[in-house]
Amino acid sequence: MQNLSPMKQIIKHVAFDVHAESHHVAIASPDGEVRDYGAIGSKLSDVDRLISKLKTSDNIELRFIYEAGPTGFGLARHLRSKGFVCEIVSPSLIPQKASDRVKTNRRDARNLARLYRAGELTFIHIPTPEDEAVRDVVRLRESAVRDQRQARQRLKSYLLRNGGRYTGKTSWRPAHLNYLSKIKMPFPAQQLVLEGHIRQVEHLTERLALLTKAVEDQLPGWRWEPLVRALMTFRGIALVNAMTLVSEIGDFSRFDKAPGLMNFIGLTPSEHSTGEKRSQGSITKTGNSFCRKALIESAWHYRQPARVAPTLRLRQHGQPKEVNDLSWKAQQRLCSRFRHLQSQHKKSVVTVTAVARELSGFVWAMAKLVAGQPVPERKPKTEANTKSDTKKVYTLKPATSNRVKRTKK
């Protein structure tokens, strides 16, 4: 009689140590063996030949993984298009032994396959090709901002070294530019250097304007346009910052709670606690630096009292009432939080970072609202939670004395 029972599925975890010219492969079998397969070519056709050699029967399931790097997401997209499971892990999130001092391609691939089989890895989000293209434009504009800032700093340093110092209120305005055009250096070589710095600043300023326009042109028709428009209702989050947040984060639904988004951005405080002692330090800064920079810039706008300025009202025009209500709720909360921390004599950087962390929570709530998902309300503190937060208050009793005051007779 023929046995019609289904065959047991065999899962093999295949790890790549990816490089530009070759990929080193290691395979973790379910029986506990992790073997080194060797190096293959870096072309997708080489990977397809590897798959045909490993998948010898229908009951074998292949799962692939490799580290994020300069090779991008092409390999993962290719494998997923063929129906395979392929994940990418950040190198900074791979567990490592403190005593491990040897690093080779073979050891990296074997270690990655072993951890993947054990389920000890945290995977990163793979964006769609369209989202990655928009993100590349946003990042290119950010690099242009950095280049312009460095060029301006070089120009100011050169003038300061040669005795020139602008005494106006603001730099890079028409008055400052007229001041630069009137400067005459004592030697022709110095004048040549000055003109070179000025021309470089002008060129980078024009380049930044073109890239800003390019970022704005990417929004119409993008699948995340409703979310970007909703985030622009927040105070301090205009089009560029909103595009930065959405292009870097992508799908907000992968974060079940707001603290998950805060961890991704790197705004949570570091901690080193042991026993009954709890010690918290500065923020981790282990997340996405582009989102963190955008939120820090936006948090500075909440140092003023809560109000809807004309520019903000223009961005809120046409948005649903629920979106504008959440924006106003965030502004009231964050402005109050900013004033409270300032009254506690906190440093400005600490205050802004704390406000940016709470702003990221409102960004997460806005994404849930736009997606049509219920936004959880903030639970009030119960008596059990507030019991540990209350501090003992000690009252000073009036001093008493047993001595009797003598009166003169």
Task: Provide the descriptors you would attach to this structure in a database record.
409 residues; alpha/beta; Nucleotidyltransferase, domain 5; 3 domains; five-stranded mixed β-sheet; two-stranded antiparallel ribbon; 14 helices; 11% strand; globular; disordered C terminus
List the helices and strands and how they pair.
Elements: E1 10-18, E2 22-28, E3 34-41, H1 44-54, E4 60-67, H2 74-81, E5 85-89, H3 105-118, H4 129-161, H5 174-181, H6 188-217, H7 225-231, H8 239-249, H9 258-265, E6 269-271, E7 280-283, H10 289-299, H11 310-316, H12 321-343, H13 348-370, H14 383-387
Parallel strand pairs: 1-4, 4-5
Antiparallel strand pairs: 1-2, 2-3, 6-7
Helix pairs in contact: 4-6, 4-8, 7-8, 7-13, 8-10, 9-13, 10-13, 12-13
Task: Kindly describe this structure.
The structure is a single chain. This protein is an alpha/beta fold. It folds into 3 domains: 10-118, Nucleotidyltransferase, domain 5 (2-Layer Sandwich), CATH 3.30.420; 129-217; 225-272 and 280-378, no CATH class. Helices cover 49% and strands 11% of the residues. It has 14 helices and 7 strands. It has helices at 44-54, 74-81, 105-118, 129-161, 174-181, 188-217, 225-231, 239-249, 258-265, 289-299, 310-316, 321-343, 348-370, 383-387, and strands at residues 10-18, 22-28, 34-41, 60-67, 85-89, 269-271, 280-283. The protein has a 5-stranded mixed beta sheet with strand order 3-2-1-4-5. The longest helix has 33 residues, at 129-161.
